[in-house]
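Subject: Predicted fold for F-box protein At3g07870-like, 403 residues

User T.R. writes:
Posting the sequence so we have a shared reference for the thread.
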Amino acid sequence: MDSNHERQRKPADESRNLIDSLQNEIALDIVSRLPISSLIQFRFVCQTWNMLTHDSRLVDLHLSRALKINPCIIFKTYHPQKDQLFFVELSDHDDDERTLREIQIPFSTSMAIFQIVGSCKGLLCLSGVYDHQAVYIYNPFTTEHKKLLHCNHAVEVNEVVYGFGFHPATNEYKVIKIGYYPHVYYATWSPGNTHVYDLPRSEAHVFSLGSNSWRNLGELPYKLHHSPGIFVSGRLHWVTRFNWHLDRLIVSFDLSNDTFQQVPRPDFNVNLFHCSYHLASLRGCLCACLLTSNGDNLEIWIMEEYNKKESWVKQFNIGASTIVGQDLSPQSYDIWRTSLQKGTVKVVCILKNGDILLDCQGEILIAYSIHEKILKIISISGMPKYCQAVAHVGSLNWIANPT
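User M.O. replies:
I've generated the structure tokens; pasting them so everyone works from the same file.
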């Protein structure tokens, strides 16, 4: 009798488990479509929902979907006593209201003035401006963070260049830190002054989040521009500075094997002593963004096949004469023109609709429509003046167990 009852109950239990599993899969699919700000609020509803947001399947599914839509834009404001972070979510509709919201920084008391090193798969890397030993990996939405161990240099560094990225082959997040020593500024082009006091001009270290340790890579024979490394094809990229290399090279750092190498740059056919260019990533391709010497044009070159010099193509030419949309006020247009002339326009990212997002002097965001060939203002309620704009994919990614 009991055995018959057990046999009858077993199929019922299996059916119930199947239904529960199916319901869980449906819930994961639905919840993974929420924007990150809603997803963070979702976990405070009840304990069950909070546990769901810690499910690695949801983390992966939400991240995979977030990578296909418009990123969040994170703004870092400049303040004499304490820097702040804000964010805005960009929808697919131009007429949707965009409201700036503050991001809490749980370690702000220990690192009040900082810079954004980079954004990768939902995590930010921040470093101290005055304290070169202060480096944090941080999820700005879950507020989970990790302070990296101190990195030992031969002597006190004068300047530091950072990079932050993730390599899928090794499944590791890494931070690259290049410290330059004070004597590099004294006649660095003279062989006699290359190694003053028998010290190297620089020292590169790499930190792996997996091993939780720094590794000394030795001297780097390049003076890199003080800007965040651009992450493309498993590598970080910088432009060299004039005092070591007069031809402004592109240098990459391979996150899979921790090596530096040169990447061929476009043939701009201009004197780079009178022009400036910066790097960006658009749809997974490395881009070189040239600001011409006359202050009239921003040329965007795209490397269609990575590490192939012949694949560089001048894809866009955004100039002072570009058609201006009706929503761009005379004041915003003046900021755009001034930013173009001073060489302070930065390419932030490309949006889902194909518009290229431009940061103009940290004052306004402008979208260049590649289809209509016009400039449009990105109106954001409460946007602070003078800030750094960074494209960021909002994610539940946990630092303790990054995907």
